[in-house]
Every structure is written in C-alpha cells, then in structure tokens.
Write a structure and sequence with these properties.
It is a single chain. About 15% of the residues lie in helices and about 50% in strands. The protein has 1 helix and 11 strands; from the N terminus they run αβββββββββββ. The protein has an 8-stranded antiparallel beta barrel. The protein is globular, with a radius of gyration of 19 Å.
Length: about 200
C-alpha cells in the first residue's frame, strides 16, 4: 500500500515539474539571427519573445534575460513598451514605447482584435517615445507605421496560456531634435497576466 502512495506521489511530482518547466519555457527568449539582417532576430510568429530594429543603422534588440514587451493600460491609453539595448556589443539600455490613445483592452485576451491591423504612427492618437537610460524623448514622427501581422492564442494541453503578438514597425522622426530612422523593426512576443497591466 505504501508503495502505491510512493509511486503516486512520485508521478504527481514529476508531472507538476514538467508542467512548471513548460510554462517557464514560454517566458524564455529564443533568439535566432536573421540571415539577411544579421544583428536582428528573424521575423517569427511562434512567441519567441524577441524584437529588433535598426535605430539609425545600429541594432536595438531585446535582452536575453529581460521582459521584451510590457503592455500598460492606464486611463484612456495603452502603451506597448519594448525594452532592450542599443548596439551589438553595448549595454546602453533603451526603450521604445508606442502609446495608443483611446484604446483600452480590459485584459490581454482583448489584444486578439489587433490581428492583421496596421497603424499610421503620424496619427494624433498615437505617440512614440524613445528612452535612453530612463530619460524619455517624445518622437515627432513624420513617417512610419506599426503592423500587427498576427495576434493569436497559444494553447498548451488545450489550455489558453497567452496571446502571441507578431508584427513589423518602422518610422522616421525627430528625437531630441535629431533626425532618426528606425528600420526593419520586428517583434514576436507572448503576452499574459505577467506582462499585461491595467490600472
């Protein structure tokens, strides 16, 4: 009888550890370099938790050990915050924030409505902010867009666990009175209750 309980307890422990590790693995970054744009991650739609773009021909990419994208809903706006670093061998922290006014998803599942949508970044109800070492600069965008090519549910063992947002962005702007070009931007990030905030 004790042997049955021992094996049951062992099985339950192993099953829980596999479940926890699978959930933990969803938060990991899978950084596969693009063969054409060699400093950036490939464009993907698998929830690899990466992003990248050229900021004036210098790579701005997600960190391996950080949260690449947080979404913050406050008042009448929603902010998509991409956190990473600029430069292939640099630790210069950088953030790029896309603020959408009059867009208020109540939880991360509402992000599915972004599937196959494109936004002109010159619109008055969208603001782009670039941050270096936590100093914010509002970008005066005169050309550019962000495209959510895919917004899809990710299921594990038939349970919905996160929404994957994948897309492209680029723009030209004045940042701190300097002309800047952001090109070849791409993102592929999983969103759940740990990186979606509504307050």
């Amino acid at each position: 009888m004790k042997r049955k309980y021992f094996f049951f307890a062992l099985f339950a422990t192993v099953a829980m550890s596999f479940g926890c590790s699978r959930e933990y693995n969803l938060e990991q970054t899978i950084f596969i370099y693009d063969p054409e744009f060699q400093d950036l991650p490939i464009y993907s739609e698998w929830g690899y938790n990466t992003f990248g773009a050229y900021y004036d021909r210098e790579a701005f990419i997600s960190l391996y050990d950080g949260v690449p994208l947080k979404i913050v809903v406050t008042g009448d706006s929603t902010t998509f915050i991409f956190s990473g670093h600029k430069g292939s061998f640099s630790d210069e922290q950088m953030k790029m924030k896309f603020v959408f006014f009059n867009y208020n998803p109540s939880d991360y599942l509402d992000l599915l409505e972004l599937d196959n949508t494109t936004y002109d970044l010159t619109q008055e109800n969208i603001m782009v902010i670039v941050s270096f070492k936590d100093v914010d600069y509002v970008a005066s965008v005169f050309e550019g867009s962000i495209q959510f090519k895919r917004a899809q549910n990710l299921y594990v063992d038939e349970h919905q666990v996160e929404v994957i947002l994948s897309g492209l962005f680029n723009f030209k702007a004045l940042v701190n009175d300097e002309p800047v070009s952001v090109t070849d931007g791409r993102f592929d990030c999983g969103i759940d209750n740990t990186n979606f905030f509504n307050y």
